[in-house]
Write a structure and sequence with these properties.
about 375 residues, mainly alpha, 7 helices, about 0% strand, flat, cytoplasm, RSPH3 protein, cytoskeleton, Radial_spoke_3, flagellum
Length: about 375
């Protein structure tokens, strides 16, 4: 089998415009001879053994050489970039643009120059009208002279024509009269038919209206009957519900009123006024009176206690003159008696105090009875 492989190569530079071929080149014809083409197999194809397939992969040394060359190119390019100062980055909102700095500027365009060419022709003349076709004559012209009265007499020849014209006119007039009479009869029949149809239509409308009224009356009475039945049913249900409610609420209303009365919703205004206003005032007044009584008793008890303590101190400490004279003299029977009498008095003193303390209690009764009178 045929196989072809070649080394990759760059494209040759192509001119911007195609060159115009010369006359000699256009006349020259290139022929290809396949007899000398090495790619064409000559002879019997079946008997020829195909050569072993050759590997299309490049040699290892060649691959290493290519890689080394690429590395050298990259290193040289990197060195040039490091040596040559680069252009600083553009500021925000701007960009770098390649411009021409030569003395003479050259228009850079990849588009082929095109030029429009024009050509003006002469104005067209109007086509002349086509002449009328006149066929050529094929015979001879012959003329004949006719004198007046030779062919026909007008008075004689015009009579049948007049008869025909007058007859046709009269016949047409009669036909028109008959047609008018027939039209009049048709119109009269049509008017009668229209009147009859109008009467029938009016009668039909009257019957339809009567039928409609009958249907409406029937529907109205049916609705009234249904409404009456509905009201009767509703009334019966209301009566039954009322009777059931009365039976159900017969014991409920007294119990509700009893509960409300027990809860205090129903009360006597006079009794409530006495309970809410008079009794609290009375209790407050009684409490104030009792407090005053207790205060009076406490004050009286304190006064009595002070008097009793003072008297007790006086009786427990005799005068100093009597004490100094007593050791000098001998005690006698008469002196001992008063001493014993004093002791008995001291012993009987608590009883007297008790009687004195009990006496104000008896005396407080008239004072207590008089205090409410004074307060009132």
């Amino acid at each position: 089998p045929y196989s072809f492989s070649s080394q990759p190569r760059s494209l040759a530079p192509r001119p911007k415009y195609r060159e115009q071929p010369s006359a000699a080149e256009t006349m020259k014809v290139h022929y290809g001879n396949i007899m000398i083409d090495p790619r064409v197999v000559r002879g019997n194809v079946l008997s020829v053994r195909p050569p072993p397939p050759q590997s299309t992969e490049p040699h290892t040394l060649q691959v290493k050489r290519q890689r080394r060359a690429q590395k050298q190119v990259l290193a040289r390019k990197f060195t040039q970039e490091q040596i040559q100062p680069g252009t600083p980055e553009p500021v925000e909102g701007r960009e770098h643009v390649h411009v021409q700095t030569e003395l003479y500027l050259e228009e850079i365009s990849d588009r082929i120059i095109e030029v429009d060419g024009e050509c003006q022709t002469d104005d067209f003349l109007d086509r002349p009208p086509t002449p009328l076709f006149i066929p050529a004559k094929t015979g001879k012209d012959v003329a004949t002279q006719i004198e007046e009265g030779e062919l026909f007499d007008f008075d004689i020849e015009v009579k049948p024509i007049l008869e025909v014209l007058v007859g046709k006119t009269v016949e047409q007039a009669l036909l028109e009269v008959m047609e008018e009479e027939e039209l009049a009869q048709l119109w009269s029949h049509q008017r009668a038919f229209v009147e009859l149809r109008s009467a029938e239509f009016a009668e039909l409308q009257r019957l339809e209206e009567q039928d409609r009224r009958i249907r409406e009356e029937k529907e109205r009475r049916r609705l009234e009957h249904l409404e009456k039945l509905r009201k009767q049913k509703e009334t019966a249900e209301k009566i039954a519900a009322r009777a059931f409610a009365q039976r159900y609420l017969a014991d409920l209303i007294p119990s509700v009123f009893n509960n409300l009365h027990d809860s205090g919703f129903f009360y006597d205004p006079i009794e409530r006024d006495i309970e809410t206003e008079f009794l609290p005032w009375l209790m407050s007044e009684v409490e104030e009176t009792l407090q005053k009584k207790v205060l009076g008793r406490m004050m009286l008890d304190s006064l009595i206690r002070m008097v009793v303590e003072k008297r007790l101190d006086e009786f427990s400490h005799p005068p100093p003159s009597a004490q100094t004279m007593a050791p000098a003299e001998e005690p006698s029977a008469t002196d001992a008696a008063p001493k014993m009498f004093g002791e008995t008095d001291a012993a009987d003193q608590p009883v007297a105090e008790k009687e004195e303390t009990d006496q104000p209690v008896a005396e407080e009764k008239p004072s207590d009875s008089s205090s409410p009178q004074l307060e009132e």
